Amino acid sequence: MIRLRNLDKFYEAGYGKTFVLRRIDLDVQEGEFVTVMGPSGAGKSTLLSILGMLDGAWTGEYYFLDHPVHRMKPKERVDLNKKYIGFVFQSYHLIDNLTVYENLDVPLSYRNIKSAERASIVCDTLDRFHIVGKRDLYPSQLSGGQQQLVAVARAVIANPKLILADEPTGNLHSSQGKEIMELFKKLNQEGATIVQVTHSEANAAYGNRIVHLADGWVVA
User: Hey, which residues does 197 pair with through a beta bridge?
Assistant: First the structure.
C-alpha cells in the first residue's frame, strides 16, 4: 500500500539545511498495523503528515496504492487523501464552527453517499462512541477527552483504507484509551491498514510491527 524511497524532509536555514527526516525507506503492506516510535523530535509526526499527504514539501519517492504521490499535483493528493485516508490528529483539528454531528458528516460528504444514508451512519457512530448527547455541541464546549473521541470517530466513520493516528489516546482516560485501541484492532482485522505514532508500549502492542525513528533516521 505504501512505499517510500529515499525520502528527505528538510528546512532551509541560513547556514544550510536542517533535516527532519533522512533517507527514509519504508514499506507498509495492506492490512498491516504499524507503530512508529522514537523520542520527541525524531520526526514521527512529520512522517505521518507526509503519509497523509498533508505535507508536500519533501523529496524522494512515495507510492500510495501504486499512485506516484511525488509526481502528483496538490489537488490530486487532496483527492487521494479524502477518498482513502482517515487521520487522527494529536491536536484534534475539529472544525470549530461545526457541531459534533456536522464534524462527523464532513468525511462522508466527500464520498458519493446519499444524505439519508449519511445521517444513519453519523447516528450509528455517535452511538458507537457514546457521544449522542454531544451531537449538537461545538468543539469549544467539549473537554479534551471528548474532542479526542470525536476526532477518532471522524477518522474512522467512512471506513478508510488507511488510518493514520498521532498519539490517538493521549487525552483519554485509560479505559477510553483501551476502548479506542480495541476499535483500531477490530478495524485492522476487518481490513483497514493502520499506522500509529505513540510513546505507549501498551498501544504499540496492538500492532504487528514497530518502526523506530531517531534524529530523522529509521534505526530499527
Answer: 36, 166
> Where do the domains of the chain lie?
31-53+81-209
| Residue 136, C-beta contacts closer than 8 angstroms, at least 6 positions apart | 99, 100, 101
Mode of pairing for the β-strands spanning 59-64 and 67-68: antiparallel
Please, what is the angle between helix 144-156 and helix 115-128, to 10°?
A: 140
Residue with cell 480495541: 182
Sheet holding 85-88, edge to edge: 85-88, 162-166, 193-197, 33-37, 209-214, 217-218
Sole residue written with cell 522514537: 38
Burial class of 48 by CB neighbour count within 10 A (0 to 12, 13 to 18, 19+): buried
* Tally of CB atoms within 10 A around 132: 13
The CATH number that domain 31-53+81-209 falls under is 3.40.50.300
In this structure, are residues 178 and 162 in contact, taking their beta carbons and an 8 Å threshold? no
- Is the Cα torsion angle 18, 63, 61, 34 positive or negative in sign? positive
pLDDT in tens, the chain (220 residues): 999 999 999 998 878 889 999 999 999 999 999 999 999 999 999 999 999 999 999 999 999 999 999 999 999 999 999 999 999 988 889 999 999 999 999 999 988 889 999 999 999 999 999 999 999 999 999 998 899 999 999 999 999 999 999 999 987 888 889 989 999 999 999 999 999 999 999 999 999 999 999 999 999 8
pTM beyond 0.90: the answer is: yes
